[in-house]
């Protein structure tokens, strides 16, 4: 008899200004997988995509990020291959390469898929360990997995465990020629235990989220390569001071715009990414609580190019101003009015409508 289940993962915005690689926020755009497993069916998974990125996402299960992550979970837990008869219909709302955690959502969907296909019953902490072997900064994947406004860190592991965690990504997600079958070679390493740790912060119910999404992509890898290896003591202290205030300020009702706006300033990543996003400093300076009542703060979402604005009121006018600013550089944008999801990734029996 066939089994049907669904996996739904929210998109995420990370950093929120000063919290580079530390804080993430799950938001109301989703990656959804509807999965059917029919024993005795085709040997390789069938994938179909609808929605955003449908033309770009590989339909070969050995090339697609989500199914490759699922295969990693299976093989790291002693199961050599996908079960027969797997059919996956993906519907995606998360634009690729825009700073809204599309790769984090794809990774979490894959980790949950592997857990279900292998009936492994991994704990949340073990699911996160597997995700961190692939996406090696914790902010997006943790928020996508557990939901809400989340702070996370990576444990400083003992040398032997650290060596296991730091294996090249090509060993975690190797190329698997589908017809090679049992000649795939050794199974990839299982993650060490307890790589990632997190805490969920509060989120004031009045705070709404506006995402202004430019039509061009910025690869996260390229945006990370733009960052320096070392920072001055002054810049480090600047960000630490703000992040400490921000995590509590965003939970307080009513939100304090003056405090939040200043607490969302950053000197660690945004200044170094401005050449990748035309007009970034001008855009961040053009919308403030004094020019736009109702605004709380504005920042680059993840590695960009999306701009995230937090507001209590007047979201349409805030969005219009940012869209107009991008237009001065010839860039078209979409505006999304989102909310913070309290739930993270969900697995449910049956197919979601
Ligand atoms: N649903 C998906 N299915 C398959 N591959 C995906 C999916 N979503 C994202 N990807 C892969 O991830 C890439 C984008 O990842 P990247 O880390 O560059 O940006 P992002 O995750 O959207 O942004 P950020 O990390 O700044 O939040 C895509 O080009 C694609 O290769
Ligand atoms: N913290 C990450 C998020 C993007 O994945 C970055 O800004 O590079």
UniProtKB/TrEMBL annotation:
<dbReference type="InterPro" id="IPR006204">
    <property type="entry name" value="GHMP_kinase_N_dom"/>
</dbReference>
<dbReference type="Pfam" id="PF00288">
    <property type="entry name" value="GHMP_kinases_N"/>
</dbReference>
<dbReference type="GO" id="GO:0009088">
    <property type="term" value="P:threonine biosynthetic process"/>
</dbReference>
<feature type="domain" description="GHMP kinase N-terminal">
    <location>
        <begin position="64"/>
        <end position="148"/>
    </location>
</feature>
<keyword id="KW-0028">Amino-acid biosynthesis</keyword>
<protein>
    <recommendedName>
        <fullName>Homoserine kinase</fullName>
        <ecNumber>2.7.1.39</ecNumber>
    </recommendedName>
</protein>
<dbReference type="Pfam" id="PF08544">
    <property type="entry name" value="GHMP_kinases_C"/>
</dbReference>
<keyword id="KW-0418">Kinase</keyword>
<dbReference type="InterPro" id="IPR014721">
    <property type="entry name" value="Ribsml_uS5_D2-typ_fold_subgr"/>
</dbReference>
<dbReference type="InterPro" id="IPR013750">
    <property type="entry name" value="GHMP_kinase_C_dom"/>
</dbReference>
<keyword id="KW-0067">ATP-binding</keyword>
<keyword id="KW-0791">Threonine biosynthesis</keyword>
<dbReference type="InterPro" id="IPR000870">
    <property type="entry name" value="Homoserine_kinase"/>
</dbReference>
<dbReference type="GO" id="GO:0004413">
    <property type="term" value="F:homoserine kinase activity"/>
</dbReference>
<dbReference type="GO" id="GO:0005524">
    <property type="term" value="F:ATP binding"/>
</dbReference>
<dbReference type="InterPro" id="IPR036554">
    <property type="entry name" value="GHMP_kinase_C_sf"/>
</dbReference>
<dbReference type="InterPro" id="IPR020568">
    <property type="entry name" value="Ribosomal_Su5_D2-typ_SF"/>
</dbReference>
<comment type="pathway">
    <text>Amino-acid biosynthesis; L-threonine biosynthesis; L-threonine from L-aspartate: step 4/5.</text>
</comment>
<comment type="similarity">
    <text>Belongs to the GHMP kinase family. Homoserine kinase subfamily.</text>
</comment>
<feature type="domain" description="GHMP kinase C-terminal">
    <location>
        <begin position="256"/>
        <end position="325"/>
    </location>
</feature>
<dbReference type="InterPro" id="IPR006203">
    <property type="entry name" value="GHMP_knse_ATP-bd_CS"/>
</dbReference>
<keyword id="KW-0547">Nucleotide-binding</keyword>
<keyword id="KW-0808">Transferase</keyword>
